[in-house]
Structure formats: structure tokens, C-alpha cells
Batch of 4 targets.
Target 1
Amino acid sequence: MYSETAIPMTSARSGPLKGRVRAPGDKSISHRALILAALAVGRTRISGLLEGEDVLNTAKVLRLLGATVERVGEGVWHVDGVGVSGFAQPRDTLDFGNSGTGCRLMIGAVAGCPITATFDGDASLRKRPMQRVLDPLVRMGARAVMMADGGRLPLTLAGARDPIPIVYEPPAASAQLKSAALLAGLGAPGATTVIEKEATRDHTERMMRHFGADISVEVVGHGRRITLQGQPELVPADIKVPADPSSAAFALVGALLVPGSEIIFEGVMTNPLRAGLLQTLKEMGASIETLAQNSDGGEDTADLRVRTSTLRGVEVPPERAPAMIDEYPILAVAAAFAEGVTTMRGLKELRIKESDRLTATADMLRVNGVEVEVVGDDLIVHGKGRAPGGGLVATHMDHRLAMSALVMGLAADKPVTADDTSFIATSFPTFAPMMRGLGASFK
């Protein structure tokens, strides 16, 4: 599938990748910073905000809902919030473009307000399921007035006039499902509780606490019990958005694969619930050195030095998936260049991303001469220490597939072409110039 303005791009074997870079602000943090600042009373200053299309669409939506959201410098934004349950009735459709994260989080935020809003997105987002996000919100008093077949966008949602606190056990390990329920719970009196069987990224909990919410987290086995006391008055709380580990992952894997490379990454978020890729790459033999540690916006960060490494195949357990769900395509590229078999288990959630990311990742490797299997929800890559390359990768409007394919071409025997790179702008608009600045051959 191509966009109407497809931008093909080809990468070829490069000289060493070298330099010192800071990846763009974390996308998950950027969405949440805007939303929670809009639900606070007063002005919040956000610096380091990711200015990709996905996050900018969230900013536009918040303006339609009555918040004042202004860009005052590069990556620096001021948000004057309207308070919990204070969103105004929007005059227009809330259009999220390609952003599943922004849409699902905002469905939760609107569900706790006494307004009616229509949610929509591009052709890719219209294919992604929304029904399971709605299920707990309906229990809290919201209702879907209109929805496309199959529980998909466009969706008209009537928020709850008197939200009901609930105890919710998400059917899958998903930070978006958890966060939507918690955002709706801000408007409900009493305690809203989310019980996770497996812990997922906890940015929403950390940031709610940063803005003054009363929220507690209890570790229960591999999961967590999160309890939010509703109807708080959130207070303005400035945020410095840390560098996105999911964006840093592309240059990081490139440095591991391209001979003679050495890159220092500044201020990368190292939240344990997002560190699955770093853990896996280290198990594969990657040279990743921590130079300094700090804290940004309530999140742990580190400067990392990454050097070319000889990688070996490993088994990645299913319980690690929530900590690296967005990084499997680029991990698959690393696995292609490793020696031996890498088995990535429990990847069911990849089937409902921007594309069927599990199948598309296997196709990306296969078209470039790498032996790969999909068995159930497992991805099995037979690494030979090299990749023939030479393939045209169908990216299916998926930014992470496009970037992964281009990184593969930097170390493959023959150039690799991504059929469309226009969607990279949704999450990482500076990807190509940053990679070229490090020495990558893109054209």
C-alpha cells in the first residue's frame, strides 16, 4: 500500500557511522505531556517535545477541545489547561492522522468529560481496532454513538456525565488500554483500579503523579495493580521530554552492524519498562556502554556509547514484549546479521500496529534474502552474519518498517529500498538528515 505522495528511499553499504547525537523527544512522553498539561489548571512548559506529525495532531485536537497549546520555540511549548473534565464541545472532527497512541489516549480523556466528539484518522488508522479501548470506558458511563464496522474509526463518542470508577483488567499487555482507562478515571469520584497481568510502560502513572494526582502502584507477580483517586485538581508541572529510545534504536543498531562505527547517544530514556531492546542487544553481544545517568521529566536517562559488535542469536521471551513492542522490526534487522537463530516469542500485539507488523517484518527480511519464519505469534530469524539485501520493502504506511529497512541497507551486500518513507515524519521527521550526518548513505 502506498500513500498518495509516496517517497521511496534507498540505502547502501556505508562507511563507519560516527558522531554524537540526541534522538528526538520520546513520542509516548510527548503525547502524555500535552494531554495531562491540558487537564491541569494553569500553564505548563514542555521542552524537548517531539514535533512529528503524530504529536502535532494531538496538539491540534487539544486546541479543538478548548486548551491553549502554543509553540514558543524549537521543541518548546506552553499549554494552558482547562482542568480535569473541562474539555469543551469541539466544533470539528478530532483527526489524529496516523497516530494510534494519540487517538486511544484521547478517547480515554474525552470519555471522562460530558461532551460528544468524533474521532477519525487516515486510511491506516481507520484499520486499527478501537473496540477494546472502549470496553472499560462504556463501563464507566461513556457510550459510542456511532462507530464504523469492526469497532474502527470513525467513532463518535459521548463522554460520561457522571463517570463511574471501575476495576479493570486489560485483556492484553497494552499501555494504551491501561492509560485510556486511567485518563477516563480522572473524572470519576473514588478509586479507579487497573490490574495488569504483565507490567507495561508506566509513563502515564509517572506523569499523573508529576502533575499532582494521587496514584499508587503495587507490584503483583509480573504485573501491577494501579489505583488512581479520581477528580484531582492537576497542577501545572514543567516537563523536559527525554530522548526516545524507540527512535534512537535505528542509529544504535546501525552502529552495531556497520564496521568501524561508534556513536554516543545523549539523554536516552532508560525506563526499565522500555529497556527491552537494550537488554536483548546486550545478550546478543552488543557493545553498549553507559557513560552518564540522569533524570528528565521523572524518567531515568543515560548517555550511551555504542560500537560495532559481533552479534549472536538469542531467544527473546514473550514477557519482554511489552518493554520493546515497537522495536521488533529493528531487532529483526540486527538478528539477520547475527550468527545463529534468534527467536522472538509472543508477538501477537504486532499484528494490530500500523500494519500487520509481524508479517511485514518477516517479508522485509525475506525479500532481502534472509531466512525467516513466522510460527504462530513467534518470529524466527536464521542469522548468517550478513544479509544479501537488494530487495524492495513494502512498508504498508508503517514508519518503523521503513526506517528498519533503511538501516538494513547500510550493512547489506546490496542496497535496500523502502517503497515509501513519507510516514517517517509521523514519529521521526529528522531521521534521514540525522542518519546522513552520522555517515549513512541514503538516496
Note: The chain is about 30% helix and 30% strand.
Target 2
Amino acid sequence: MERMFKGWMASITFLLVTIVSCDKNERAYKRFIDEGRWAVTELSAGTTLFTKLPDWQIYPCDDHENYCMATWEHQNESTVDFYWKFSNLGGDFDFYADSATSDTQSMAFSQCVNFSGMYDVKESKRRLFRFESYTTFGYPDKLVTIVLERE
């Protein structure tokens, strides 16, 4: 009887953890997609602070479990589409450039590819996100920071 009770409790615990994890991913996703447009207010790699800051246009997406699409808009008016996703209870954010439909010679593409990777979500507020990573495509082993604020 005790063994059956422990198995039942383990199943309930697993179910609750699964529900909570989906809920946190969905909340981060909904905050991010809610307004649609975000300004990058900080972009750094190691000790380099970039001054040509892009905007991100986030498009409607009904499936927070899979990658969604957005556009990286460079200050020189070049753009690149990219895919993004929250995971790990909303604690991770990753994105990558879409090389198939983008001008791979543009500044937007170069910047987006270099900053592509898996980020830790360090701050998640209604109008602000702060992402940090040591595993970006263009700056491996350097602390990369992206701060986004809702426009």
C-alpha cells in the first residue's frame, strides 16, 4: 500500500512540475510577444559595448512550445528574420538568424548571427528583458548581454 502511495505521489509531482514549467514558459512568451516591438538598449560582448543598436519586431505566434519568428532591424535599415524561443521554465532564451530568406551580406544579418545563441534570462519584467550568454555564435566564451525594452 505504501509503495502504491509513493508511486501515486511521484506521478502527481511530475504532473505538477510539467504544468508549472509550461506555465512559466508561456508567461515569458506572452510578456515578450504582447506589444510586438522591442528596442535593444544594451548590446555588449566582453568589454565591447555596441552603439549601433537594433530593434526587434516580434510577430504573432500561437505556439510557445516551438520557435517563433521576429525581425532584427539594424540602424542602417537592413533587416534579418530570426527565430526565438523561451525554455527551461522561462529561464532560457535562444534565437538564431534565418539564413534561407535573408540577405546574408547585410549588417543586420552579421549582427544577428554573431549574437545568436542560448541565453540565461537574468531579468524578466513587463517592459524589460535582460539576457546573458557565454555561448553565442560570434562571441564564444565572452559574456554577451542583451537588454530589451518595450517601445
Note: The chain has one domain: 2-150.
Target 3
Amino acid sequence: MKINLTSIWLLSTLSILNVATSLTATVYAQEEGNVTDSEEPMKFFAIQHAQSGSISETNSTAYSLELNDVSDKTILFSDRPERIVTSISTADFIGNWTNGPNSFALDAPNAVLVVDEQGIQDNAIVDLFNPIYDLDKKTLKYEVTPDNATSINISTKFGQVTSFIDTGSNQGVVAEMIALGGNR
């Protein structure tokens, strides 16, 4: 079978478009009609990314985390079996922090911070509290505590950082965020 260069170019272009679409639209890994019998709500995780950041100790058990040049989108993805991927604006994600009976203000989510400092990756597991997002300055600040109640052992200033947020028992809040602001 012969494949000409036009066919290869067309297949490559379609593959690139498919990847780009999946980054901005809701994607279902399974058929939409394939619903489970489970009564439990879908579990979502969130991803936030910034170009740099810093962390400083505010007292013996708490820290201040500042993320700079933060992405204006927060990616949300669900656990099995649905595997839904979508994004909402970071402003909407933070703006809904205190909404609902199971809000993040009442049950703080935990997160893994993955930082990159001069090509060396490090991470810390933290609980996130009291976010302040400044859309104009593209900064996001959190009060954080180490998940193991000891200390956070990462550089005080770092390059790229990605936060993987476990939304825990706040699934209703996340579902509302998606319904109100998904794919903006």
C-alpha cells in the first residue's frame, strides 16, 4: 500500500486538531450513554499551573504560597468510570471556593505542588486555604499547611509549578462549577 505525502500531512493535521480540541472541550473517554449504577458523585481533580512561585513561613504550622503568571484556566478531570475532562476559568474556580454546604472553605482540599527549580523537580503535599486570585496581575495566593503537619521542604522561590488538587468531599461544588462555567 502506498501512502503519499498529502495523506501523511492530512493525518498529522487531524491528529493535532484532535489533541487541541481535547484540551479545550469536554471529552468523554467512554460512550456518553455508558452510565454506572453507582449513587456516589463523580470525583473530580483540578490542575492549576503557574510560571513561578514562592512560599514563606507565616508561623510554625502555616505558610503563604504565591503563584505568579497563573494560567487563566483550571483543568478539571474526573475519576473512573466517566473520565470527563473540562476546564473553567481560574476566577470561577476560586470565586466558588466558599459556595455550598460542602465548600472548600469548610473542607479544605489537599494538593500536591510539583515545583521545578533549575531543572530539578520537587514536591510537597499541602492543604489549601483562603485563596486570593488577582486576574490583572495573574497571581494566586493560598494559605497552606503541610499535609503531614510538619514542614514544607521545597525551595522558597521556584520556577514552574503545577498544583494537583484533590477536591475530596466537595464534589457537589465542583459539579456546580462545571455546570456554571465549564469550557469558558
Note: Residues 42-181 form one domain.
Target 4
Amino acid sequence: MMQNFIKFVIRGVAGAVVDTSVLWILTTYFFHSYFTKYVLSPAISSESGIAVTYVICYFWIWKHRVHNEKSDFLKRFLHYNLALLISLVLKIGFLDLVNELFHFHIIICNILALCVSGIFSFFASEKFVFVKRSKKQ
């Protein structure tokens, strides 16, 4: 499991690079209104990062648990998105909790919240999204 966790951290770095790069490209060259720059661009960049991290999970980290079929890929992708949405809610809640309890700087709160939500994301992927299933499921 530790080897998968290390790969999961690497996948997170790759996702952050993709997310940030797509956001920069969109806001620098394509989108300039408030809505497109602050709502649409982050949504697109975030989903781009999620897609890249999912592909890394599917074909590298948990490749021995998947069926390499279109339906399996898409079904797990929906579950992965749901797990990351729950992780985002957890991150925001934990960030707020740490801020309210300890009054740390927002960056410190965010780093701590990222650690908690990252651990949740790993275990959600390990135990829910990429659990080995029979072909009939």
C-alpha cells in the first residue's frame, strides 16, 4: 500500500501541474471576462487535472485491478470524480475548522486541509474506486 501511496502523491503533483497550466493558458490567452476567468477556467482546469490523475491511477497505480474496458473506465471515472468532490468538501470544511480553532494563516490551514483530504482521496481510491471487481459487476 505504501508504494501505491507514493505513486498517488506523484499523481497529485502531475495533476496540480496540469490544472495550473491549463488555468494559466485559458486565463492568459482565451478567457478574459469575469465569468470565464474566475468560474469557467478553474472548472475546466480542475477537471483537466482530475482527468489526468484518473488516467494515472487507472493505467499505473491500480492497473492490476481494472478491466481495461470502456465501460469499466467510464464507471470508475464517475466514482473517482465523486470521491474527489467529497474530498473537496472535506478539505474546505477542515480548512475552516482549523482556521476557527487555531487562527492559523490561510496557507497553513490549506496545507493541513490538503493533507487530510489527500489521505481521504487515497483511501477512497484504494477501497472504493479501484477495488477489484469481477467482470459481471
Note: Residues 67-137 form one domain.
